[in-house]
Amino acid sequence: MLRAYRGQPVDHMPVWFMRQAGRSLSEYRAVRMHSNLFEISRSPQLAAEVTIAPVRRLGVDAAILFSDITVPLAAIGIDLEIKPGIGPVIAQPIREPADLRRLRPFEPEQDAPYVTEAVRLLVRELEVPLIGFAGGPFTLASYLIEGGPSRTHTRTRALMYGNPRLWRSLLDALAGIALASLRAQALAGASALQLFESWAGILDPQTYRTYVLPSTVPIFRGLADLDVPRVYFGVGTGELLADMGSAGADVVGVDWRVPLDQARMRLGRKVATQGNLDPAACLAPWEVVRERVTDVLRRAGASAHVFNLGHGVLPETDPEVLRRIVDLVHQHDVITPEGAAVDL
Ligand code: 1CP
Fold it and tell me: Ligand 1 test: best mutation among 17, 18, 19, 35, most atoms within 8 Å of CB?
């Protein structure tokens, strides 16, 4: 997977699934019966157990640390709760300049030692790379401003347009938190890093370039010395791909709304891709799943690609389907630009 992330030849296409650890696995549900999301995240043993389960069960080529994008915010004292069936809910949203004082810098080893401890534990046990992650500044800002999940991100966009100075300070503070968190995970042993800018696809390209990209570029630049592949992901980002490709990441996530070959044209040749199966396709009969997976593989062609879903695993997904997808992707011959199967 690390070779694919770096655009180097591979003997088979690597595959992992966003949200592979939580949700659909019975192993996760068993742990979740006794502990909530933050309790699992704050226990290196439980977090490690939940992180490893899908690697064993599904045969994926990478593990993703079990945590949440809101964990660093909770660790610096933001009063937030994960409400079942809803998501992160914030008691006092951030809407005024004075509210920014609550966003102090994040010091991973002091504020959230359990995260790096979980990473260290996992890299000792895992035989596949561990992916560390953080929330992108737009996505975290949206939770902080809205006070919880939102479909329209209306208050977020209103604050962005209405108070660009406050917006910029907020995004820079959140970018600092993301960078500190990602650096700490890499220094503890994570071999790749993903920035989840899940909700940026609500913006048009010009707005994204003006209000999000300037706070995002320093995150990727601030990781450059670590020599760890950097992945940049968002949902509904078809119109933003060219700009996202210029942010400084090595890999850009592509959801299912843009066919992979077209996404590559928008991105240019300098970055690898990850995605782009519709998560809902996993709920269809196997024949349909196979057709959809094969279509992504065909469109990937000889390009550097890591197979994944276009967004997270849906809770109702049968893990057996995910396991079969892993086998199917691994059996697929990766063709070099010269037209011969890569022989390593
Ligand atoms: O495989 C894994 O499940 C890894 C762990 C993981 C990751 C990578 C969790 C656990 N959360 C995340 C990232 C995350 N969290 C993102 C980015 C990825 C994405 O777009 O899906 C986002 C937007 C969140 C915020 C969040 N946390 C939501 C979404 C709410 C919304 O706005 O629609 C939810 C439901 C949570 C809670 C949460 N985080 C993780 C789990 C398993 C859960 C479910 C709650 C629980 O089991 O208690």
Answer: 19
* Residue 119 structure tokens: 């990473």
Q: How far apart are CA 339 and CA 207, in angstroms?
A: 41
- Give how far Cα 253 sits from Cα of 18, 98, 242, 264, Å: 11, 35, 12, 11
By most ligand atoms within 8 Å of CB, the mutation choice from 26, 31, 69 for ligand 1 is: 69
The pTM assigned to this predicted structure is 0.96
- The confidence score (pLDDT) of residue 344 equals 30
- The alpha carbon of 108 and the centre of ligand 1 are apart by a number of angstroms equal to 20
Alpha carbon 109 to chain centroid, angstroms: 22
Structural domains of the chain in order of their starting residue, each with its CATH number: 2-342 (3.20.20.210)
Q: Rounded to the nearest 5°, which phi and psi values hold at 25?
A: -85, 135
51, 64 Cβ separation under 8 angstroms: yes
Q: Is 71 in the pocket of ligand 1 (CB under 6 A)?
A: no
**Cα torsion angle, 90, 187, 232, 279, sign:** negative
- Tokens 């850009």 locate to 252
CA distance 271 to 6: 8
In this prediction, the residues of the chain whose per-residue pLDDT falls under 70 are: 335-344
